[in-house]
Amino acid sequence: MTDTPSPSRGLARHEVPEPLRNDVRLLGEFLGRVLRESGDPGLYEDVEALRELSIRAHDDPGSDAFVQAEALVAGLDQTRAEQVARAFTCYFHLANLAEEYHRVRVLRERESAASAHELIPDDSLQSAVVQLTREVGREEALERLRRLEFRPVFTAHPTEARRRSVARSIRRIAELLVERDALHIGGTTLAENDRRLLAEVDTLWRTSPLRAAKPTVIDEVNTVLSVIDSTLIDVLPLVYRRLDDWLLDGDAGLAAPIVQPFAHVGSWIGGDRDGNPNVTPEITRQAAALAGEHALDALEASARRTARALTLDATGTPPSPELLALWRRQRALADEATARAVVSAPDEPHRRVLLVVVERIRATRARDADLAYTSPDQLEEDLLVVQRSLVEAGARRAAFGDLQRLLWQVRTFGFHLTELEVRQHSQVHAAALADIEAHGIDGELQPRTVEVLDTFRAIGYVQGRFGLKAARRYIVSFTQAPEHLAAVYRLAELAFADADAPVIDAIPLFETFADLQAAVEILEASLQIPEVQRRLAANGRRMEVMLGYSDSSKDVGPLSATLALDEAQRKIADWARQHHIELTLFHGRGGALGRGGGPANRAVLAQPPGSVDGRFKLTEQGEVIFARYGDPVIATRHVEQVAAATLLAGSPAVEERNARASERFADLAGRLDVASRTRFHELVRTDGFPEWFAQVTPLEEVGLLPIGSRPARRGLTVSSLDDLRAIPWVFSWSQARINLAGWYGLGTALAAVDLDELREAYEHWPLFATVIDNVEMSLAKTDERIAASYLALGDRDDLASLVLDEMRLTRRGVLATTGEVGMLERRRILGRAVQLRSPYVDALSLLQLRALRALRTGVSEETKPDLQRLLLLTVNGVAAGLQNTG
């Protein structure tokens, strides 16, 4: 399977860097060879015929190639249609990994070309410190760096369509590409690499892309823990080290670090029970225990590695009195461990102490109470004793080398690895309190009430075993009154009637348009809750507030939701300042644009003044977790970019720019809001829209896809959108090549405004520019002809016309605003990737349409499973091709 571009794709093809082009060509040729060897006569020829027709149809819309492609797809038997769908899906996996590896290659080459002081990217942490220093002085800049917080929270939303088996196969192929890059010598070594690559591509082709069953919650926990193990355990200390070395300059490695850990990983996986009956109190305990085990495993390995290298003898590096005192305490605590340490390091006092530290970490993991550390603080203090002793002895490089890395890991991950957050719907709490009031705490309670109470007991267990940070935050979905926060504290008290309740911070989640507008009023009233007052007094008046992007977008449309969120942030930040509260706004952003997605660093810099203040927290989910954190080099870059933006968002220049833009374009924002919201409601509030939506997209079939433990709905039927989760809402529109959730209503709004005013806003209003750029990316992945084929399935010409007219209007409005001739004209790397992929996605869309048409027209129960399987295979492929799901 190779890529021979048509003339109109020639420019995009020409712009592909040669190393990337070579990788894609190689992998495509190997896939073609595997298809020819598969034992299925004509398979390769069918794949190639559909590929060539799709390219011609894409490049020459006036030709009959699209009709020919549809006819080819219609003529395939069921087995061949599935094979062709798998072939295109396999190609996308290979192209994706080639692009990811090339990104890694470019980052490495760029950084190896010059020293940190010679090459400072504009969006780097170093650059942020430089800019801040110019504006506020070095002392204040370093103080802001000390207070910096970046909190990614991994969630188990079902948007990662790949099986773990497929992901592992892709990773093995990527490793062979890296090996191939390092060879350059040809001969038998390169031939061996060819053989292994072909074998892995063959394995990928033969591995079913569909899971046999939905993953369990613990499967999801393990998937994300594997990402943290493979990247973030090492990446975060590396991020701190790179910045610290730059700040210390000539003293790098010789002085105490300036940088303190600022990245803290959170997780909802195993804690988010809103609408997911599979998350039980026992699952919450298991999730925390697994994360804790991974944390202690990593700390033990890191401490052992540090101890092995600390071969400094007592003569040249004498121990301090403090270190000797620690050694005496260790001997009193653990005779056997200290005896082994003496044998291993007879005249190496610092190594000896660290070897016992290793044994104590191991004992903590094994729950050996006699030897275990009671808290990460206790472990950190032992490490600091070793560090101070090394400094006193003049061994500063040993003190601030691997030992400092270990200290950063302890401070970042503790014994918990991820800060587990619990989430539950406010109405569940209300029902539980009503049940308890009716029957008494010891009465015959409903199972859900018992589950709610047991959840608080699980939180208490996790805190007792892994520390307060391990599980303290409790998110209240659909917070619509202060009583919804008070209910959390009341239920915790009831669950621990005879013991101290765990420490809990109840965090409101404002999701709908109305909730966002009422947020400040609810927060003001919550200050009267005694438990809230006590928490503010105990934690230095720190408070978190979560903002939901997805439900507000589904409620009023993407543009109005963005403007409502911006206004809510501004008002909440003002409210927090008035009450001297240190506010952290928690952004429920997803990977797809319809869920607030897009580049996180640009979004941070567009936030209202005072709403970031050096703290940024957001959800990271599904395919976004792997895209941003799956590779160490890319993860390092992502963390540095977002942290830099978080630091800069509070700079006087950025805050003044955003404040000025907000005031200057307030009237424009109001007009855009009204026009876009009206247009959005005109569509979604039309009689029969929910049922039509289910007809023209694979909504029902997405619910069958085993890609997450969580149900697609909270229980209502498809006749209501109110409780339809935002993920299938976004996922389904993207599969239909419409992406409506990311742009609908914007075209009408833009058409109502003078073009000069729009261009002025695009140049000077960061929030508006971010919206336009994100919509441009979303529209670049749509296809009007294929979209029309999906919309025709619903037999509602009025609704189909609304969608297609708005798509054209939005496309014209975006291009006029940016001054471009074509989509992504200025963003050449992204533009060429979308242009080169689109024909291949089109081929999968035609296969999906074939299955969907048959399912919608009615088929026998015997035929239905085959058609559903074909459709689900194409769902995987389209997700891989578009590189976004829900």
Feature tags:
886 residues; 65% helix; nine-stranded parallel sheet; globular; disordered N terminus; mainly alpha
What does this structure look like?
By secondary structure, the protein is mainly alpha-helical. Among the domains are: 7-113 and 164-207, no CATH class; 225-413, no CATH class; 665-826, no CATH class. The protein has 39 helices and 9 strands.
Largest sheet: 9 strands, parallel
Q: Uncertain regions: pLDDT < 50 for 5+ in a row?
A: 3-11, 714-718
* Rg of Cα set: 28 Å
What strand order characterises the main sheet?
3-2-1-9-8-7-6-5-4
Q: What structural class do helix, strand and pairing data support?
A: mainly alpha
Task: Please give the structural blueprint.
Layout lengths: L9 H5 L3 H19 L6 H17 L5 H11 L2 H35 L12 H12 L1 H10 L1 E7 L8 H20 L3 H20 L10 H32 L17 E2 L13 H29 L11 H13 L1 H10 L4 H18 L9 H17 L3 H4 L2 H12 L5 E2 L1 E4 H14 L7 H20 L6 E5 L5 H13 L9 E6 L2 H14 L3 H9 L3 E7 L1 H7 L1 H21 L3 E7 L11 H6 L9 E7 L1 H7 L2 H18 L2 H13 L1 H19 L4 H8 L2 H6 L21 H10 L10 H6 L3 H10 L1 H15 L3 H8 L5 H22 L9 H30 L6 H19 L4
Parallel strand pairs: 1-2, 1-9, 2-3, 4-5, 5-6, 6-7, 7-8, 8-9
Helix pairs in contact: 2-5, 2-9, 3-4, 3-38, 4-38, 5-8, 5-38, 5-39, 6-7, 6-27, 8-9, 10-11, 10-17, 10-27, 11-14, 11-17, 11-19, 12-13, 12-14, 12-15, 13-14, 14-15, 15-17, 18-19, 18-20, 19-20, 21-24, 23-24, 34-35, 35-37, 36-37, 38-39
